[in-house]
Specification:
With 409 residues, the chain is an alpha/beta fold. The protein has a domain at 2-99 and 200-253 and 348-401: Rossmann fold (3-Layer(aba) Sandwich), CATH 3.40.50.720. Helix content is 26%, strand content 29%. Strands 7, 8, 9, 12, 13, 14, 15, 16 and 17 form a 9-stranded mixed β-sheet that branches. Strands 1-18-19-11-5-6-10 form a 7-stranded mixed β-sheet. Strands 2-4-3 form a 3-stranded antiparallel β-sheet, with no helix packed on it.
Length: 409
């Protein structure tokens, strides 16, 4: 798909962008549809006063968004030697605790909570391999640990997904019927990966800076604003929940999925346990490298964008998790914090798609990579690998024109 962008005075979009709803709110129509470069579309006037606030030059690759999905894209590129060609632009960075910055509020672990489509299965497998490597080689530095896990289903057992996961999950076992609690139809055990979300984000941030990645704190008014620098060849759109409203994206399939969780101190808990019900999710997730902290949850409230926390939900979570985990019942957990998060979900699953446009006669590329919902930490690396694969031609051009030595870590 090719879109045309006219620099300075106006923007000319192809009809495909109009059909996708990508030109609403960008500006007013300045002229009737006309032909330009073989693609028909109206000219749109945009704000040309926007500037990226940086003393250093903006790089050839811009990643918009510094959640786990954007950071994983930066990591995949940096591992291939492109760290010094990357600028990450985001309103929120690792270490922030804004309600609109979803990633640090995650539990988080590797589980069967993701979808059963071919893409989700592929991304999960790649993600499990990546996280397992981190847990083997540098668990204390990355805050990724191997953890024994049990998952239980009351109904709607995703047998196809479980069959696919059984091919690579360590220590995978289907629990016999006599081991199942009352009203549980199916259960499996395996070795999962648990992740200390805020600390892992900090690890990635510092790791990427070692690779030479540039970070800028700025909120952009539209996705096309990421092309404010003439040096930028490709933009990765990793904006999470903002994909529903950000001009230039405005994806009507996107929606938030609210969750509420409790951070407790319960050093006796060493196992990950999850129970999938008809209209609830209950989970107990140890937080690596925290000295005994555990995440208790939770809720999966589709379409709810409320970031407040509620005492009745806290009571429900404590009751459900104590019944679920025998380890948690051994000692009364100390409640340290209660918080809510909004998972960046999307009907039909995550979107990974390349779009092209022409700026001042030169080809530019946008790669959309968002909509992972609550699976960003387990699927993000696999999604990043696929997103990066869509720009092999651009990477060849960047490598050809860049003679700087690349950091090898």
């Amino acid at each position: 798909m090719v879109f045309l962008l006219k620099e300075k005075k106006g923007v000319q979009f192809g009809e495909g962008m109009r059909k996708l709803g990508l030109i609403s709110q960008l500006g007013r129509q300045a002229a009737p549809p006309r032909c330009h470069g073989g693609v028909k579309g109206p000219t749109i006037i945009v704000d040309n006063d926007f500037q990226i606030e940086s003393k250093a030059p903006i790089r050839r690759i811009v990643i918009v968004g510094a959640g786990i999905v954007g950071l994983d894209v930066a990591l995949v590129l940096a591992e291939r030697g492109y760290g010094q060609s990357i600028t990450v632009i985001a309103e929120h960075h690792p270490g922030d605790t804004s309600m609109t910055y979803t990633s640090p509020w995650a539990g988080c672990n590797f589980s069967a909570i993701s979808g059963s489509d071919a893409n989700a299965l592929k991304w999960d497998r790649l993600g499990y391999s990546h996280l397992t490597k981190l847990a083997s080689e540098r668990p204390d530095e990355t805050f990724v640990h191997r953890t024994p896990s049990t998952e239980l289903w009351d109904e709607n057992v995703p047998h196809d997904k479980i069959k696919a996961m059984s091919e690579y999950l360590e220590d995978f076992r289907i629990l016999p019927q006599e081991e199942l609690p009352e009203q549980v139809k199916f259960a499996v055990s395996f070795t999962t990966l648990t992740i200390n979300a805020p600390n892992h984000l900090q690890y990635l941030y510092h790791r990427l800076k070692q690779y030479g990645v540039q970070f800028l704190r700025q909120k952009i008014p539209s996705i096309l604003s990421a092309f404010a620098s003439p040096t930028t060849k490709v933009v990765f759109n990793c904006i999470g929940n903002a994909a529903k409203t950000l001009p230039g994206v405005e994806d009507s399939k996107c929606y938030p999925t609210r969750g509420q969780v409790i951070l407790v101190r319960a050093p006796q808990v060493r196992s990950n346990v999850m129970r999938h019900g008809k209209d609830y999710e209950t989970y107990v997730i140890p937080r690596p490298g925290s000295g005994g902290n555990v995440i208790l949850g939770g809720y999966m409230q589709k379409g709810v964008g409320d970031g407040a926390t509620y005492s009745y939900e806290t009571e429900s979570i404590l009751d459900r998790t104590k019944r679920l985990s025998s380890e948690l019942r051994e000692m009364e957990p100390e409640v340290m914090a209660v918080f809510a998060g909004l998972r960046p979900s999307r009907e039909g699953g995550a979107r990974i798609e390349r779009d092209e446009l022409i700026v001042a006669g030169d080809k530019r590329v946008i790669v959309h990579n968002y909509g992972a919902g609550g699976t960003g930490f387990q699927a993000g690396y696999g999604m990043a690998m696929e997103a990066v694969k869509t720009i092999e031609d651009v990477l060849r051009e960047i490598r050809k024109n860049d003679t700087r030595p690349r950091p090898r870590l």
